[in-house]
Amino acid sequence: MPDDPPFMEETLTTPEGRLTLLTLPSGRRRVSIHLNDKTIFVKSGECETAYPVELIRKIMEAKPLRWVCDEIVREESPGAVYAKIKYNVLGYLRAEDLSGKRILDFGSGCGASTMNLCRIFRDSDITGIELLPKQVAVAEARRDFYGYPNLHFILSPENAELPPGPGEFDYVNLNAVYEHLLPSERRGLLPKLWGLLKKGGILFISETPYRYSLFEVHTTGLPLINFLPDFAVNFLVRRLSIAVKMEDPWTTYLRNGIRGGSEGEIMRILGALPGKALLLDPGSGSGYHRRESYPVTLDEFSSRYRFSVSSSKYHFPKKAFHSAIRRIHRITGLPVAGDISLAIQKGE
Hints:
Number of strands: 14
Helix content: 25-40%
Distance between the termini: 66 Å
Radius of gyration: 21 Å
Structural class: alpha/beta
Shape: globular
Largest sheet: 8 strands, mixed
Order of helices and strands: EEEEHHHEHEHEEHEEEHHHEEHHE
């Protein structure tokens, strides 16, 4: 039996720092991220992948260095996007209901959600639409790596527009997309996406932070700001959160997802359009509420909190603070921090 090949190491550099690739005897690669600025939060600093080096390079071109491992894990790990798509789609439908159907993955990014749609619904025709050319290049490279013949990508012309002629779809999926649309884009794009949906088809919106969670964890890590007006939030986050840049305009915070979304907002937009919008309830065995998929507990939040909030600017005791949040949670029923998971059917 031949000996395992020796470990091979390669370093890729960017202005942000360097990425080290260690090829393991199995042929997989261990990816390690080393930033020049040690104060920057890195969600996933190390991971393993089956990707070839050229695909990893494409991800580095499309994403900031600190998000490279996170992007890899989102696509490859069964516990990441794969589990959430099964949770958010199959909570409403059976897998066979999507067999032979056309699915649109809008805002497909680098293709993490689209690849997982292909894994779950192998007999469906799937199209991804994305605005950024470098992210489309990553998605196409992933498709070619896996050899998915039923997957296509289209470059979108601009934020509030769709590419011409994509056709009609049985299902439209927005996974971790809606929160990044500006208010005007939400009002402009949802009607266009609704227009692509066949009668009886379903619009899925998931992994969008619930607008009225007690904590805004997606962008700032701050408590209770979801209940304040925009001008107050704009003032506070610049002074209290280390996860945002002081010089960024309010529109950048909105683009990053600071306001999340809610079923009320979405249904108001769709309610004015042709084709009655019917908000579906998840199956009785799914065990979750459409307003609180994958909720964040206080203990989970504590681990995120220290990376996004300047602790020197807070002087309250931790136990008293958590006790107050638990009390508000019990009284209001609002999640500490959760995502919305909506399935909206298009009627006559």
